[in-house]
Amino acid sequence: TYYQKDAEGVTNELFMIMYPLKLRGKKIKYFMEIARDVTEYRKLIRDLQSSEKRLRAILDTATDAVLSIDENHRIILFNDAAQSIFGYSREEVLGEDLNLLIPTKYGDHRQYVHRFLERRESDIVGKTIFLTGLRKNGKEFPIELSLSFLEMANGITFTAIIRDMTVHQQLERKLLQSERLAAVGQAAAHVAHEIKNPLMIIGGFSNQIGQRLEDEKDLQKLEMILDEVRRLEGLVANLGDFTKEYRLVKRHADINSVLADVLEIMSGVCSPEKYEFKKFLSSEVAEINCDPDKLKQVFINVISNGLEAMTDGGTISISTETLPDGIEVRIVDQGSGIPEEDLEHIFEPFYTTRERGSGLGLSISYKIVEAHGGEIWADSSPGEGASFIIQLPAG
Ligand SMILES: Nc1ncnc2c1ncn2[C@@H]1O[C@H](COP(=O)(O)OP(=O)(O)OP(=O)(O)O)[C@@H](O)[C@H]1O
Ligand SMILES: [Mg+2]
Do residues 235 and 319 share a domain? Predict the structure, then answer.
């Protein structure tokens, strides 16, 4: 290539080719030179390159994943957000089949592309739909996807804009749970109120009759009646707790010493040969503004559940830690664990898997923690026990 200034002083880029001319049987004597002005052509390429760079920058600052596939279902575009959402690097996925990013239970995704290519129509092009994606770590997650296609000389490209809906779905679930709690709460308050007085009468008269009974068997039966009455009274009290609008009585309190109190109570009610408590209380945990009596109830509920889940005995570990704006309490047991499908229900009122459980312990705990502006949730792999995590804000 040569550069040459023209009459107006503009530099032009010339592309020159020189051909040797060989006349039959003679030595090379002549050369022919062809020059082509490629200035425009070069400029076009440069423009294209910078426009591609611009597009790339836009694609990579987008918070939604953008990915394209060709007719053969191979991934040909994968922006930065796609890398962080799916967990793969661009190098790992470019040229790979799209099925890599779709849970196998949804079958071979290629059939949809085939169908589209045959009929040129689809239910999903141009619409927003909800699907499930698959991350590199094997975890499935909810996505919102909108799809478009582009037909060009060298084939069809499908481009999807994908949003990770994990956080959105969690918030939605929480909202639903709060609404459900409110509705059930009203019904429960009514029932509790109706049961309270008859229960008092049953208990009171049973006691009176008991004083006159002599037959051993009758006395046993009466003891059973009184047992059940006490259980129902406990339930009614729990219902009251559950339906109460929580008015916290806040003061500055040291959660470590609240936990120490709770452990002392709990050690008193369970056999020391069977159950052990281990404390990992961080000395850095500062006092927080809270209602320690209500929180005591939360810790007792969670620890009781742990004890009940460890029918053969075991250890419950209780640890505290500071957070940037508050504290975290972790209560870990070695019990039966909670199946994944139950995890999202355990904080619902009346949800129980125990024969004599009321299913209120955790929903009351949830309300108390919520009233503090904190969070409570559970983690568990079945067979490996359960962990309950309680986060409380400092103020
Ligand atoms: N640590 C745990 N290990 C295994 N399962 C648990 C654990 N904690 C809670 N669960 C499950 O969650 C359910 C709800 O717990 P929750 O404390 O709300 O009610 P409950 O213990 O059944 O009854 P209540 O506490 O009102 O007497 C339990 O029935 C149990 O299935
Ligand atoms: Mg319980």
Answer: no
